[in-house]
């Protein structure tokens, strides 16, 4: 399989940055309905509970759907699991790809569709915008998300990707029977940054998040409730630095905190006052959780892969992902125990 998966290609990002350079011969893009507005938390409203669904006809399988948002046609892939019952509310796991990747590659990397067939959840893989779609020019291999600190054309142009997710959720509900209390988010790298943003701005829509190799990139994060976080990161990641940094600023990004600080912030927001507890250890992989949270299930956990690169733990075929920890299995176990209250 072809896996580029957020290698922060200088040529792609520089081309993107050039597209919005005020010194360029090209005019700056005109803001439209797809640009983030002044109140990004305005749509953070809990949907009504659901005990059953009627009139839905989609069966098990993989589908590529679109939804209109911000004057653009936005795409997403959905895997409906084997044994799916269209009348029964079903958990949903969103998985956001990294910069310069796609929803198809994210499905391959995460293997959430395969696990969904076994565990009975719907896997959703949204597609980010590229430079050509945002600015009308530039590299098509520059898809990404507005994760505030990272990365690419969506972040540079302040695209309303949170609004896109709102539109996607509404569209998804017309097609499959989702459980509003069991919708979760994960993502790799730039997609991990964006899953943190959803925790900050859509805590009523997402029950918990599990970023992989991506940090909390917001300067002002005030989730409407305590939201559980499970973060995976390698200490030798050369792209999104485990200890944080400003290596993205030359290509339009912003300084970002360390993995430990990203998790610590949510532990503080979640009222976690107890001691840290080791929850997993095998080989080069160790997970530690803040405890004494309110509620207790709102843990903030960090899984550290010592010597790990910019990789998805358990996916050994990409950037030497560790075999000592399976991020996909671990995040699903974490999600299962943490529906939205």
From TrEMBL:
It is found in: Secreted. Pfam families: Esterase. InterPro entries: AB_hydrolase_fold, Esterase-like, FaeB/C/D. Its main location: secreted. Keywords: Carbohydrate metabolism, Hydrolase, Polysaccharide degradation, Secreted, Signal, Xylan degradation. Residues 22-51 are annotated as: Disordered. Residues 1-23 form the signal peptide. This is Poly(3-hydroxybutyrate) depolymerase. It comes from Corallococcus praedator.
